[in-house]
Amino acid sequence: TGTVVLDVRVAPIAEEYILLLADDQTEIVRAQSIRNDFVANVSHELKTPVGAIGLLAEAIEGAAEDEDAVRHFAARLHKESARLTALVQDIIELSRLQGADVVTEGRAVDLNRVISDAVDRNRFPAESKGIDIVVGGRVTRPVFGDADLLITALRNLVDNAVRYSPEGTRVGVGVRERDGMAQISVTDQGPGIPEDEQDRIFERFYRVDTARSRQTGGTGLGLSIVKHVMSQHGGEVSVWSQPGRGSTFTLSIPQLEDPDDVAEPGAEGT
Ligand code: ADP
């Protein structure tokens, strides 16, 4: 009879333990599957430029006598290597942003400067497409954070607006303050984004039009980076868009109440 008692007492404990274990396992399996997906996606995305670079190097060797052909292949080689560089940079940036608390040494950031820096870095590609970037508005209060990351986020939005817009159109960058938040909007007259894809474009490597994204030098990681920069700042990114009418992306970032107070918001008294 001793055995029976033991069975009765062990069974519930074991069941509970198994349930706990099962919960942990689901979490671990979920995390592993997200990581595996990312690795699979990264490998797939890297294969294209790496393969092209190999083939182009062979083509150059084979065309050694033909100067025009060499020049043509070399130009394409250059383009593929630029694409590979951009991809590797974005993968590294995104991996860093996915870690906890990247903005540990934040400070008061003047968003007016962030806007002029992000816009300046897109002036050349915009001019070469005859696109006018028009900036409007100013903020009076700073936000807490990392200026370089905020520039990266806004630069990505302006870069997308310029890349996806037809020649000779206008890109507007506006800023306003509302309820303790600074809102920076980037508006374009591009193709717009279908409503059922507006959530998905923030996922890694999700593109509405893959050929167009690649052709214009997109890595498919830009908006994912923007989303992570915003969550590191306690802010968010949103999109309004209508196919055929253009898109507006908005960054909302909490402002510092007292410009002299550069302590992390929510960490008062520490
Ligand atoms: P990509 O490098 O492909 O541009 P992103 O993460 O920046 O990657 O954007 C994801 C996708 O969202 C793009 O491939 C494109 O289809 C769509 N998209 C982003 N910004 C715009 C925009 N301003 N106008 C139209 N489509 C856009």
Automatic annotation (TrEMBL):
Biological process, per Gene Ontology: cellular response to phosphate starvation
Reactions listed under catalytic activity: ATP + protein L-histidine = ADP + protein N-phospho-L-histidine
Coiled-coil zones: none
Group of enzyme by EC: transferase
E.C. number: 2.7.13.3
UniProt keywords, alphabetically: ATP-binding, Cell membrane, Kinase, Membrane, Nucleotide-binding, Phosphoprotein, Transferase, Transmembrane, Transmembrane helix, Two-component regulatory system
Any GO CC annotation of this UniProt entry: plasma membrane
Compartment(s) of residence: Cell membrane
Compositional bias per record (Polar residues), positions renumbered to this chain: 241-253
GO MF: ATP binding; phosphoprotein phosphatase activity; phosphorelay sensor kinase activity
Domain Histidine kinase: 41-257
Protein name listed in UniProt: Sensor-like histidine kinase SenX3
Biological source species: Kocuria dechangensis
